[in-house]
Amino acid sequence: MADPSTYRPATGTIPESPGVYRFSDPRGRVIYVGKAKSLRQRLNSYFADLSGLHPRTRQMVTTAAKVEWTVVGTEVEALQLEYNWIKEYDPRFNVRYRDDKSYPVLAVTMHEEYPRLHVYRGPRRKGVRYFGPYAHAWAIRETLDLLLRVFPARTCSTGVFKRHGQIGRPCLLGYIDKCSAPCVGTVTADEHRDIVENFSDFLSGRTDRMVRQLEREMAEASENLEFERAARLRDDLGALRRALEKQAVVLGDGTDADVVAFAEDELEAAVQVFHVRGGRVRGQRGWVIDKVEPTDTEQLVERFVSQFYGEQHALAGAADDAAQPVPKEILVPVLPSDTPALERWLTGLRGSKVQIRVPQRGDKRDLAATVARNAKEAFAQHKLRRAGDLTARSAALQEIQENLELDQAPLRIECIDISHVQGTNVVASLVVFEDGLPRKSEYRRFEIRDAAQEGDVASIAEVVRRRFRRYLAETADEPAPTEGSGEVAPGDTVRTGIDPETGRPKKFAYPPNLLVVDGAKPQVDAAAAELAELGITDVAVCGLAKRLEEVWLPHDTDPVILSRTSEGLYLLQRIRDEAHRFAITYHRQRRSQGMTASALDGVPGLGPARKQALLKHFGSVRKVRAADVDEIAGVPGFGRRTAESVVAALHAGTEGEKA
């Protein structure tokens, strides 16, 4: 591990101008590329105190052995140079927007004498026009099946095309009029190319012109009494309209735009893009990327725009693609800090004005919300795939055992999280994972006692104390065995944890192999102290700090840093996030109940027990307010005088709200 001070440039030698910098390892490989408005300010931040750096940034600067920079004149030049260097060096510490799968496209081989339509995956080639990407190959085949009736172009391979040319007989598609059969000379090369050009125009968005042309030809055929041709054109028109229906109109103004959305956590982010051309969704794609350094949504947007559209422009140029890779509008969740520079750079790629903006209202805002839901769903599916993989779960438990130096793999893990708002309505959650999967039937919730006097550390200690006192009570409070049983001495207890009445395990009967607390060193030390005081020595404790994703062990001065690709870290994060979700849900429920019941505060003769009885009987304050004196007096424990006080108080509150 290198010491950054050994290669730190003298501060006065770093220019304050905008530029692009790159870190290299001892072998000269570039491991990180970045840009900055002020090179001096940005580079000095990397050589601050190592303990204050993000763990991944710390790993990068300690892996590097040299830093170099290039001064540029404008931010647009910086964007271009950063993109070129990332593409050239493929640095390991840079975020890269690679597809999480190879999306299929519809390829049209315009360089051939008889162009072919086919499904394609792989690198772009010159002389081939591409449409898509599509989410599934069957979507391309379904679209082709509809459109070949109108545009009967060749779809067969070169071998099939030559074989049917030799035997002088077309294939099945030629007999059912879904291919113009250029292999046997039914149409000339120029006529077949015209069919393919019309097909490409239709997929490029010039749909209205094609529909109007078919309508005009159908009307002319009808006027000339060519009813068979008119019927065929009518069927072709229907096929075109069915193909259009599959590409739903999402922007009524016919806008060309890409809509981008993100779903993220501390280590990963999912990106979804909808490509809208002529108001219709023409393609969709998604990525799941690793965050190699602290990255907010603004930075994700900036890096996505610079890398993705630079790559798409290069692909279009390599493939002689007529389709414009850069749309007129890019709709994003937040504007990046370098929006003007990005717009100027994109305008140069497109050749006309490009705008980056956040949709505020109407169809575009609704579409952005749809893309955001897709991003969240893709992110959730990505996490579920990892969580559902038995091999990954086994590797995660093994990694946790090795990194935390446990005696055995933690097959049962419990996690505690605290939730409150400025010290009010303090609650805690306890979630249970067994074999890397949640066991929701054993989740528990706690109300923190004396919450006003406690902070998170004391709250964690209280929950640990209460949970493990219950464990000791439930496993030790068993009847002594009869004399002469031969198993244990008379007077001893048997720790079974089984309820003798139901035959089922008691609520807190099983201890975890590992107890995780949401927090850092203070929370971990507090939990470990409680376990030691109770005499429990076979439960390991660790803490997961949210900000830096560090794992803390009791009494250690430094945290354990797990690799960002570690399955063990991913499992600990998932457990921590589940505990947080469960705690937040309970906290909101308690807070809602508190706000609901507050309407009954101050009613003479109505204490907490009667208030709870009233809410339990009617179900809500709204229903209590709708009840009359007799109905309230019918609740057990209520008299007529108290009922009249409740009605008077609630009705007075209603009148005050109206006033």
UniProtKB/TrEMBL annotation:
Domain GIY-YIG: 16-95
Domain annotation UVR: ranges: 208-243
MF annotations from Gene Ontology: DNA binding; excinuclease ABC activity
Coiled-coil spans in chain: 204-231
Sequence segments annotated as region (Disordered): 475-503
UniProt subcellular location: Cytoplasm
GO cellular component, one term: cytoplasm
UniProt keyword list: Coiled coil, Cytoplasm, DNA damage, DNA excision, DNA repair, Excision nuclease, SOS response
Sequence ranges assigned to domain UvrC family homology region profile in this UniProt record: 259-527
GO biological process: nucleotide-excision repair; SOS response
Family: Belongs to the UvrC family.
Quaternary structure note: Interacts with UvrB in an incision complex.
HAMAP family: UvrC (MF_00203)
Free-text function comment from the UniProt entry: The UvrABC repair system catalyzes the recognition and processing of DNA lesions. UvrC both incises the 5' and 3' sides of the lesion. The N-terminal half is responsible for the 3' incision and the C-terminal half is responsible for the 5' incision.
Stated name of the protein: UvrABC system protein C
Species, as recorded: Pseudonocardia alni (Amycolata alni)
Gene: uvrC
